[in-house]
Design a protein that fits this description.
Shape: globular
Number of strands: 14
Order of helices and strands: EEEEHHEHEEEEEHEHEHEE
Mean pLDDT: 97
Number of domains: 1
CATH superfamily: Ribonuclease Z/Hydroxyacylglutathione hydrolase-like
Helix content: 10-25%
Strand content: 25-35%
CATH topology: Metallo-beta-lactamase, Chain A
Structural class: alpha/beta
Pfam families: Lactamase_B_3
Number of helices: 6
Low-confidence stretches: none
Strand order of the largest sheet: 6-5-4-3-2-1-14
Radius of gyration: 16 Å
CATH class: Alpha Beta
InterPro entries: RibonucZ/Hydroxyglut_hydro, UPF0173_UPF0282_UlaG_hydrolase
Largest sheet: 7 strands, mixed
CATH architecture: 4-Layer Sandwich
Length: about 230
């Protein structure tokens, strides 16, 4: 059983029992997440999909608060290492690493990536996390890609965390196709409603998902779910 807690935009805390993983921390500047007490968040690992500010803003604060390990592509971990973060692990597309909670594979995402100061952010990606508690796909920001079929062929995906806000990423229609590609019927939505271009009709999205035989789960900020 995996416990998932949502902190807004694309930020999720995943509890795997002995260890916790925080994805793409963007909390303190997000007015929708104003009730979240960021300094009370505890995590062992921080995984970053790409370098945009809306995914890395709180990396240093949370990593330093927790002495957590930062995992991302080589360019991003190098940038943060130069800013004083000591515990980092760099990856790149196709690579996998066994950690003490399970295995992380860094997979393709079709997007852009630059860091807040304009530095090159390397190639954007997503993550497949395989553990004794379950296996899931965190897509990061991406378009629909046939590379997702390789995930479905290589892993038994219990659920996928997918962007659904459209405009900058895939919307619900392509997210449902992505779920088909990776072989899951359970989608956790992310990257929606944070600002005007990615505001969505949530009920319409859920209805579309049901019509395609999928379950779309949209968590409230601060809400947890066991999967």
């Amino acid at each position: 059983m995996i416990e998932l807690k949502y902190f807004g935009h694309s930020t999720f805390l995943v509890d795997l029992g002995d260890k916790t993983i925080l994805f793409d921390p963007f909390i303190s500047p997000n007015p929708l997440a104003s009730d979240i007490e960021i300094d009370k968040i505890t995590t062992d690992f921080v995984l970053v999909s790409h370098g945009h500010e809306y995914h890395v803003f709180d990396v240093e604060r949370i990593v330093n608060n927790n002495e957590a390990t930062l995992v991302s592509n080589f360019e991003i971990v190098t940038w943060f290492k130069n800013r004083g973060i000591k515990k980092v692990f760099g990856m790149n597309h196709g690579g996998a690493k066994d950690f003490d909670f399970g295995t992380v594979k860094y997979v393709n995402a079709v997007y852009s990536s630059s860091l807040p100061d304009g530095s090159y952010g390397g190639n954007p990606g997503g993550f497949v996390v395989a553990s004794d508690q379950g296996t899931f796909y965190y897509a990061g920001d991406t378009t629909l890609s046939y590379d997702m079929k390789l995930i479905g062929e290589s892993f038994d995906i219990d659920f996928a965390i997918l962007p659904i806000g459209d405009n900058f990423t895939i919307g619900i229609t392509d997210a449902l196709k992505a779920a088909e590609f990776v072989g899951t019927d359970k989608i956790i939505g992310m990257h929606y409603d944070t600002f005007e271009p990615i505001e969505i009709n949530k009920e319409a999205a859920k209805t579309e998902a049901v019509g395609r035989g999928k379950e779309l789960i949209l968590l409230n900020i601060g809400e947890s779910i066991s999967l």
